[in-house]
Amino acid sequence: MAKNIEDYKVNGCDCESVPFNESANEDGKEECQTKAPIKEYRSFLHEILHNDATRFKTLLSVCAASGFCILGWTKGQFGPAFLDILLICSTSLEEGSLFMTSYFIGRVMGSILGGAIYSRLNRYLILVVAMTTNSLMFAVIPWCTVYEMMIAAHVLHGISGGVMSVSLISIAASIWGTSARGRVYMNIFYAAYAIFGFLSPIVTSPFLIPTTTDVTIYNASLNVSNEMFDDVNGNGSYIQSVPKLNATHTESPESRLYIAFSISAGFAFLVTIPFVVLFFKSPQQSENKVRIDELRFIGDLPILIKILQFVNVGIFSAVFVAMNYSFSGFLTVFCVQHL
């Protein structure tokens, strides 16, 4: 007897299924069997080796984390090197505090600039320019003996750091999205920042100026002989005076901060090279796709909710950054001077 398609539908659903065999169950009804698709599990390493998209995301993740390490390195180096910078410019702590202030003002300006141009220009080009400027400022700062030049260098250093921060965090958030891999990667991303912030003072400390010491060079004795002769009797007497001279010399060794900052400049420039390659290798179509994915990542929320989120994140970030950089900068100076 011919059967129509209604006879092959699964009980309780509208999907169609072709049975492997027709057999009666205990109730005498025909049993419909469906075959579920089998998903093959593939490890992350297997995807890296055989999937071009996963391989590119992994390489981009490493590059973004490496660039973010530079910001952690800068943060860790800024506090210990601050006293040397004061000595290079021959300025006081009160006047030199403007160096830190100018750097943080530059970070604010750079963050605003980075947010304004990130969606309008190639993101790799933005990072290449910002990271190159950042590495140049590392090399220039130890040689700025003029007060105004040091302030200008710190402003440019801060602007480049602000652009880097906005661009790198945006790239890191868009690589893996809101997936489980994305959450794990963001933890690794900030862990790398913290690790290099810890290593930076260790590398910088051998090149810092030691505290000023008074060194006693010698205890010298000066022998002076005065001869007096009696022309008549031919008798002579010798008068010897031995005054003592204690000399104390205060040594002020020259700064070797340029060595530590040269290491930082070289490290920052090496991290810039992969982004130069990405800029020339990435087609414009992939950049447009990234922008579309980023819009989907933000979501379609009402404008009022977006404004509230923006204000909330802004207040939280302002408090966090103020506490974060105050402790890393001024607390280090206090410990060096008073402990």
TrEMBL record:
Keyword Nucleotide-binding belongs to the record: no
Transmembrane regions listed in the UniProt entry: 59-78, 98-117, 124-143, 155-176, 188-209, 257-280, 301-323
Keywords assigned: Membrane, Sugar transport, Transmembrane, Transmembrane helix, Transport
Gene3D superfamilies: MFS general substrate transporter like domains
UniProt entry tagged with the keyword Membrane: yes
Annotated InterPro entries: MFS_trans_sf
Organism superkingdom: Eukaryota
Protein name: Sodium-dependent glucose transporter 1
Native species: Mizuhopecten yessoensis (Japanese scallop)
